[in-house]
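R.M. (postdoc): so does anyone remember the format we settled on? I'll just put the structure tokens first.
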């Protein structure tokens, strides 16, 4: 595969860091991002929930990379609330983190990606595809908005030579993930949830997501645009 110039948003830790680190190992040029300052090579701190900050991050990234081929929108956050107890502040925070972080990154990078005929990958969630029992409503709705946005804008971007696709993970296990913390509290309860709801009776791993990204940024995926790839072990119906 031709080596790409890539930005991974929300990559200071967790799944985003795993993705960025593996891309680097494969020889791609990668800029990492997080809201906090960090002493890492090719790392740019900044908040993608704000348009002005997003524009600055993308412009700095473009200068470092001397181009841009791929944008991976990985920022996301969930917060539990009882149904009908959600506050305005929570709704705003969830849309800022799960929807506007991607919108702002895409809007700021469109001109560069159109020039390179590049691609965009949005990391979403199965909660944005259908009702998942126990999933926070604010989180689910904001991810659903992201999914529909990606599908809608794929028509416009496709005409400009840019592909945009979504990856919707199910239950992922990695250090300090939501499920990692839940297992620490009550392993037996978590085991019962997975055994009851996931046909493959296991968690997904970061590699399962990275392997799809690796495929989508390759020439093998040159005719894939506006698609939503569900990686959940068969948990949901709308695959």
């Amino acid at each position: 595969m031709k080596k790409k110039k890539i930005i991974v948003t929300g990559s200071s830790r967790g799944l985003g860091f795993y993705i960025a680190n593996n891309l680097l190992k494969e020889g791609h040029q990668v800029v990492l991002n997080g809201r906090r300052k960090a002493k890492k090579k090719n790392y740019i701190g900044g908040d993608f929930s704000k348009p002005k900050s997003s524009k600055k991050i993308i412009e700095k990234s473009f200068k470092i990379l001397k181009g841009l081929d791929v944008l991976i929108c990985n920022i996301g956050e969930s917060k539990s609330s009882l149904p009908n107890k959600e506050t305005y502040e929570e709704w705003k925070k969830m849309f800022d983190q799960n929807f506007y972080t991607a919108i702002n990154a895409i809007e700021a990078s469109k001109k560069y990606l159109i020039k390179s005929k590049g691609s965009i990958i949005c990391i979403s969630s199965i909660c944005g595809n259908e009702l998942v029992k126990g999933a926070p409503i604010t989180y689910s709705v904001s991810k659903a908005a992201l999914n529909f946005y990606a599908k809608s804008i794929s028509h416009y971007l496709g005409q400009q030579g840019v592909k945009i696709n979504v990856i919707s993970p199910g239950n992922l296990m990695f250090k300090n993930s939501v499920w990692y913390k839940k297992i620490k509290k009550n392993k037996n309860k978590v085991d019962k949830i997975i055994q009851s709801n996931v046909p493959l009776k296991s968690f997904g791993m970061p590699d399962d997501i990275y392997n799809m990204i690796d495929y989508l940024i390759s020439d093998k995926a040159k005719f894939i645009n506006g698609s939503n790839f569900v990686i959940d072990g068969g948990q949901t119906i709308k695959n």
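R.M.: ...and that's the designed sequence above, right after the tokens. Also worth knowing: The chain has a mean pLDDT of 94. The CA atoms of residues 73 and 102 lie 6 Å apart.
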